[in-house]
Design brief:
Elements lengths: L2 H13 L3 E2 L2 E2 L3 E2 L1 H10 L8 E3 L2 H11 L3 E6 L12 E5 L2 H14 L6 E6 L5 E10 L3 E8 L4 H4 L2 E5 L4 H10 L17 H17 L3 E11 L5 E3 L3 E4 L14 H6 L5 E5 L8 H10 L6 E5 L5 E2 L2 E4 L11 E4 L3 H4 L3 H6 L4 E4 L9 H16 L3 E3 L5 E4 L4 E4 L7 E8 L2 H13 L4 E6 L8 H9 L6 E6 L5 H12 L4 E5 L13 H4 L3 H12 L2 E3 L2 H13 L8 E5 L2 H13 L9 H8 L12 E2 L7 H12 L5 E5 L4 H15 L5 H29 L3 E4 L10 E2 L8 E4 L2 H21 L1
Helix pairs in contact: 3-4, 13-18, 14-15, 15-17, 18-24, 19-24, 21-23, 22-23
């Protein structure tokens, strides 16, 4: 069989009509033909003979040698086992004759032919497959096979095409990965041969777009470790024209929307609480340097500024139009906006795609008109944008985070508000923010690619509920991740849903599992909670990447050390034992009853120099890649409460003395945070802190002029460990894919 023969076979099968009781049967390629295709793509398959006549079947059995495997194949029966059309270990001719009779009865004489195969010995069975995902295209599946595939669902996915790193990661991810090693007297799996199967599936998917799904189950591992495909199914479909990206976005123009030299608020309002007033006053309350024009048909004054009755009355050009007028009037603005050389339309207005078919049609009509006029639409139904680097805050959130390196894009306005407020509170710098809204023209992929080439962006953080073009999202994210971390929180988890496909392989997938697989493969760091988005943005912006996953833990109290150790191990981090050398060095610093192990319990000593000295010793140690220190910072909260109690109850203590003590604790904490920064700069290892307690002045980041890195403190061990896990995950992916 040649490649051209395969395409002819596919075309013929797609044209063939096949029905049972007037119900169409999914188009498929029979097992023996499927395995011929596999063999052309270097997939090892079992030897077999196809026969129809009983005498020829028996002759083939004798030639193969008993015991044999007998299979009945039919165009109209896709899953042979469920119909009793697979018999393994037939030992003589009489058993074969009986099996043929029983299969014909079970299939109601709807058997095209019989396959005769040798019995392949092997205690381990895997499954491999391919299916076309509507968002991400060809997806390769691998996992535990045989009868356990659907029962245990120990499977992993990768977006095709595959490279060696992808396949190694598939082997690492399955829970049954021990079966890939020496097992009960059988040799370790020959991974290169297994990779041929996965690579072959990937190659087939791109060579023949009409192949919808491939199911190879089981792949039996023979005693010498060689894999062999003993069964296979190929499902077909007529190729459909997939609508890709509708609009090519000028990324330079998109970037300029964050640096507008002039703004026009179209729909400016004098009523507090309305969008036309809220966005205007938020923008004007800062030190934005650009020109601001107000437009409302009523004219007059708003916020003491002249109001134009139309855009055409404005003499100067406008960079960015902020629009809050009703949806059905927006399209009428396009000619005037074009005349004013408007680059971007920040469309706050709702009433488009989100309300149904009528709104969708209106949105599409508006988007085409704007695109033809050379105007980018940000939104509609967006909460706005901001760029702290020019003090430009044109959004619903009255939160003003400092300029930084984290680009934030959210498909939810409420989520954006929460994250911007948290960033301001915790002193986390923001490069720019956008609420992407309906993404009628500018999509999440466009934002990601714009921040990819932006020199000020060091981390890209996304809240996503859906992607319009999964394949593009995957490719863009993989490219961006090679330069800077991408952190994603996925909202709107989808259910498994009914699969129309007849293949078991396709039915094993779900939208969420495929999205998660795409993220892992593209180097995206996924989180499960909103605050984790900015926790990771904080550490990526403040700390060097770890070179490995070995963690040293220093704690002011044993319990926290135990909890943190458990958390590290649960997240795949390592907590190595201390070397003899570092134990001897710590013996010179700590009292005899210290823990003498990792975690290092510094046993509550009051000497302020001990935490600093111990921390530096751990960073000097070549047995760790990162340090988590707990309980040293945040003691001031306890001290404050203690002083209040003392002053209420002990007349011998005066307020001045008490305040002097409180100030000394505050000074120690300030000195300590600065010392941590200096050590991080010196040893180039990430140091993550956990505060004993937090109060209104607690922050995530602490800075020191002249230093690249910062002190990082979290309110709980869980958040510190998760943040470090994310850094290790990204560092490992970057090393493997760069």
């Amino acid at each position: 069989m040649k490649l051209t023969d395969i395409q002819k076979l596919i075309d013929a099968r797609l044209k063939a009509s096949s029905k049972i009781n007037s119900i169409p049967i999914p188009k498929s390629i029979p097992e023996d033909e499927a395995k011929k295709i596999f063999a052309l793509f270097n997939i090892p398959v079992v030897e077999e003979t196809r026969e129809t006549d009983i005498d020829q079947i028996l002759s083939a059995c004798r030639e193969t040698g008993f015991p044999v495997v007998l299979k009945g194949i039919s165009t109209n029966i896709l899953h042979k086992t469920e119909k009793g059309l697979v018999r393994v270990g037939l030992n003589d001719e009489s058993q074969v004759v009986n099996a043929v009779k029983e299969m014909n009865i079970s299939a109601k004489d709807d058997i095209d032919a019989f396959l005769i195969q040798p019995v392949v010995s092997g205690k381990r069975e895997f499954v491999a497959g391919m299916f076309k995902d509507p968002q991400f295209g060809p997806v390769i599946l691998f996992g535990l096979g045989g009868i356990y595939t659907e029962a245990l669902k120990d499977i992993v996915f990768k977006i095709a095409p595959l490279n060696d790193v992808d396949m190694e990661d598939m082997f690492e991810q399955i829970s049954a990965k021990k079966l890939l090693k020496d097992f009960r007297g059988e040799r370790a799996v020959k991974k290169q041969e297994l990779k041929k199967i996965l690579k072959g599936l990937s190659d087939i998917a791109f060579a023949f777009p009409n192949i919808k799904e491939i199911d190879i189950n089981p792949v039996i591992i023979q005693p010498d470790g060689s894999p062999v495909a003993v069964d296979g199914l190929i499902m077909l479909e007529q190729t459909r024209q997939v609508k890709n990206k509708c609009y090519d976005i000028d990324l330079a123009k998109l970037a300029s929307c964050y640096y507008p030299k002039s703004l026009a608020f179209i729909g400016a309002s004098s009523t507090p609480g309305k969008w036309g007033h809220m966005l205007l006053t938020n923008t004007l309350s800062r030190d934005y340097k650009g020109k601001v024009y107000l437009v409302n048909p009523r004219g007059g004054e708003i916020t003491g500024r002249h109001v134009y009755t139309s855009v055409s009355q404005i003499k100067e050009d406008i960079d960015l139009a902020v629009v809050t007028i009703p949806a059905n009037h927006v399209i009428d603005l396009i000619p005037d906006l074009k005349n004013k050389n408007v680059k971007g339309l920040l469309l706050i207005t709702s009433g488009f795609r989100e309300i149904g078919k009528q709104g969708k049609n209106l949105e599409e009509k508006l988007t085409k008109a704007a695109y033809d006029a050379g105007i980018l639409i940000l939104g509609p139904n967006t909460m706005g944008i901001c760029n702290p680097h020019i003090d430009f805050y044109c959004n619903a959130a009255h939160a003003y985070p400092r300029p930084g390196s984290t680009a934030l894009v959210c498909q939810s306005g409420n989520m954006g508000t929460q994250l911007l407020a948290f960033a301001e509170q915790q002193d986390i710098g923001i490069r720019a923010f956008s609420g992407s809204g309906n993404e009628a023209m500018v999509t999440i992929e466009d934002y990601m690619e714009a921040f990819e080439i932006d020199a000020l962006t060091k981390t890209v953080v996304l809240y996503i509920e859906s992607v319009k073009d999964g394949s593009r999202f995957f490719k863009s994210a993989a490219r961006v991740s090679r330069q800077k971390p991408v952190v994603v929180l996925k909202g709107g988890r989808t259910s498994m849903g009914e699969k129309a496909a007849a293949s078991h392989t396709g039915a094993m997938a779900s939208d969420t599992r495929i999205f998660n697989a795409a993220c892992r493969q593209a180097g995206i760091i996924q989180v499960n909670q909103p605050m984790e988005l900015l926790d990771l943005s904080a550490v990526f912006s403040a700390l060097p990447l770890p070179k490995g996953k070995r963690v040293a833990i220093m704690t002011l109290g044993g319990g926290w050390g135990v909890v943190t150790t458990d958390l590290c191990l649960e997240h795949g981090l390592e907590v190595p034992g201390l070397s003899k050398d570092i134990i001897e060095r710590l013996n010179k610093i700590l009292p005899p009853f210290w823990s003498h192990g990792n975690p290092v319990d510094i046993v509550g000593e009051n000497d302020p120099g001990i935490p600093k000295t111990c921390l530096e010793e751990l960073l000097r140690w070549d047995g760790c890649d990162a340090v988590i220190h707990l309980g040293i910072h945040g003691k001031r909260v306890l001290v404050k409460k203690m002083i209040e109690s003392v002053l209420k109850t002990d007349p011998a203590i005066d307020k001045a003395t008490a305040n002097l003590f409180k100030d000394s604790i505050l000074q120690f904490e300030e000195d300590y945070t600065q010392y941590v920064i200096k050590l991080t700069q010196k040893y180039k290892k990430p140091v993550l802190g956990v505060s004993l307690l937090t109060d209104e002045i607690s922050r995530t980041l602490y800075r020191l002029d002249g230093y690249e890195y910062k002190s990082v403190f979290f309110p709980s061990p869980e958040r510190a460990v998760k943040a470090l896990w994310g850094m290790c995950r990204y560092s490992n992916w970057w090393e493997s894919n760069s």
